[in-house]
Design brief:
Order of helices and strands of chain A: EHEHEHEHEEHEHEHEHHEEHEEEHEH
Radius of gyration of chain B: 15 Å
CATH architecture of the largest domain in chain A: 3-Layer(aba) Sandwich
Strand content of chain B: 25-35%
CATH topology of chain B: Pyruvate-ferredoxin Oxidoreductase, domain 3
Structural class of chain B: alpha/beta
Largest interface: A-B, 23 and 22 residues
Mean pLDDT of chain B: 93
Distance between the termini of chain B: 20 Å
CATH superfamily of chain B: Pyruvate-ferredoxin oxidoreductase, PFOR, domain III
Number of domains of chain B: 1
Shape of chain B: globular
Oligomer: heterodimer
Helix content of chain A: 25-40%
Mean pLDDT of chain A: 95
Largest sheet of chain B: 6 strands, mixed
Low-confidence stretches of chain A: none
């Protein structure tokens, strides 16, 4: 397969189209505008539909509707726009509707900075809306991985009948990198996917009340509501098998960098530089930030590890809370942080590593 | 082997296009890894724009490094902003039509000069200054073969064949200037 140079946002959109996504609704916001722009051009070519909604709320609810009708559907936004979509996301989770959405995140609460950041970790992994629902949250650190994870996200969403979130930052969204694209699903394959949802989706049913599809984001009956929540909890508990993590030179490491997304690729290049200089440094990179790969932290040799360095483009640090739960007090945890749209500098990572090694 | 390049100038000078042409050529015709990362504010023409291209035989960590191996500056403000990021022994490419070599207050970098604004005007189209500068860069560094870069430009301009002769002349002018300063 020939490689092509693509911008992260466009690559995400193309991967979605190839996965069979045939409906996208969104509303403009930097730095994810290339996603709707790409879909606007691309979806009509494959018989799909693009809508620029009048707002984030309208867009996410259109996606909720299209996915309820069995069509693979997607939306995207950036931090404050994702916050606006949280109502619709929560409804999709409650009604168990499979949608995929991407947050190309920016820096800070409120409107934030338009430059890249990783300030939405808690929002993404803990509460992307009301009601305590959970989602698979996939965090690519290269454009290729953004493609592969987006392609897979639709399968996860359909398998679980649950929203899936692609959590990327503005660097992954706006940078260009060579990618190999996955195969285009054929019209027959897409039709078969839709047909497989007939049991629950509004794909057209007989006038037969018992067999009619119900899209129900909540229950009036307390017993039913509890059962729905128990079913959802059982689903979330089953995700242990879906945990993805990259462990790089961890076993003998005296310092282990913990980072995801763009910070992780910068961290990994710092590991290479350290190793070339004879310093024993490793990396743990969560690919699924939810569920979190706590087990990877069992592979650290705490007899030799002087510290774990949490590297993230967020102030205050957020990922560090999951790192803490993985490390369980077995070694010190330090942080290397930046925020507000400033991009993690490898120099500052190297300095922070040296500071731990010097202890 | 990894090369970190920063290209900086005014919005409208084709800074992003220059970086994208180089990144595309690397992707299309080599086995190397490459990243292109744009950086600009809300401004367009007249604002500042810069981009980073990293070309590497290995995995690329940061798509924008702290230290640049090569720096292309198309205007004065970019020189004062980015010169400090150039590594000792690095190569600075200046648009000598509007960037004064006397303002380069470092003696540990190699300076390659090309009056690309004037040359583009002489060729009858101010817009080709970026293609001339790309030629200078490729001619001097040979980071990717010139014919590969040209075929990428040719492909990208495919819908506007009328522009090809001018761009070809601009690219070749740049190559000649770059090679002459090796």
């Amino acid at each position: 397969m020939a490689r092509v140079l693509m911008k992260g946002c466009e690559a995400i959109a193309e991967a979605a189209v190839r996965a069979g996504c045939r409906f996208f609704a969104g509303y403009p916001i930097t730095p994810q505008n290339e996603i709707p722009e790409y879909f606007a051009r691309r979806l009509p070519e494959v018989g799909g539909t693009f809508v620029q909604g009048e707002s984030e709320v309208a867009s996410v609810n259109m996606v909720y509707g299209a996915a309820s009708a069995g069509t693979r559907s997607m939306t995207s936004s950036s931090s404050p726009g994702v916050a606006l979509k949280s109502e619709g996301i929560s409804y999709c989770a409650a009604a168990r509707i499979p949608i995929v959405y991407a947050n190309i995140s920016r820096g800070g609460p409120g409107v934030g900075a338009i430059q890249p950041a990783q300030q939405d970790y808690f929002q993404a992994t803990r509460a992307s809306g009301n009601g305590g629902f959970e989602m698979l949250v996939l965090a690519p650190s290269t454009v290729q991985e953004a493609v592969d994870l987006t392609y897979a996200a639709f399968d996860y969403a359909d398998r679980d009948r649950n929203p899936v979130l692609i959590l990327a930052d503005g660097v992954i969204g706006t940078m260009m990198e060579p990618v190999e694209l996955p195969p285009m699903k054929t019209d027959e394959e897409i039709a078969a996917i839709k047909a497989s949802k007939a049991k629950w989706a509004c794909t057209g049913h007989r006038l037969d009340y018992a067999n009619r599809a119900w899209i129900q984001p909540g229950q009036w009956d307390t017993a039913r509501m509890q059962r729905a929540n128990e079913d959802a909890a059982a689903l979330y508990a089953s995700w242990e098998k879906d945990v993805q993590v990259e462990e790089y030179m961890v076993e003998d490491a005296e310092v282990v960098i913990a980072a995801y997304g763009v910070s992780a690729r910068i961290g990994k290049s710092a590991v290479d530089l350290c190793r070339a200089a004879g310093k024993k440094v490793g990396l743990i990179r969560p690919i699924t930030v939810h569920p979190f790969p706590y087990a990877a932290f069992e592979h650290i040799n705490y007899d030799v590890c002087k510290g774990v360095l949490d590297v993230e483009m967020s102030i205050p640090a957020q990922l560090v809370q999951d790192v803490r739960m993985g490390v369980k007090g077995r070694c010190p945890i330090e942080t290397c942080l930046c925020s507000g749209g400033n991009i993690m500098s490898r120099e500052s990572v190297l300095k922070a590593v040296d500071a731990i090694l010097a202890k | 082997m990894e090369t970190n390049l920063c290209v900086a100038g005014f919005g409208g000078q084709g800074v992003m296009t220059l970086g994208k042409f180089l990144a595309s050529a690397t992707c299309d015709a080599t086995e190397k890894n490459v990243t292109f990362f744009p950086s600009y504010g809300a401004e367009q023409r007249g604002g500042t724009a810069n981009c980073f291209v990293v070309i590497s035989d290995g995995m690329i960590g940061a798509p924008l490094g702290d230290v640049m191996d090569d720096l292309i500056v198309m205007n004065g403000p970019s020189l004062s902003k980015f010169l400090k990021t150039l590594k000792p022994g690095g190569t600075l490419f200046i648009n000598s039509s509007i960037v004064d070599e006397k303002d380069v207050d470092r003696d540990d970098v190699k300076v390659v000069k090309a009056p690309v604004t004037e040359l583009a005007l002489d060729m009858g189209n101010a817009k080709v200054l970026n293609v001339i500068m790309l030629g200078v860069y490729v001619g001097y560094t040979e980071v990717v073969p010139p014919e590969v870069v040209w075929s990428t430009i040719e492909h990208k301009l495919g819908s506007k064949p009328k522009l090809l002769p001018l761009n070809k002349a601009a690219f070749e002018k740049g190559l000649e200037l770059g090679r002459a300063q090796k």
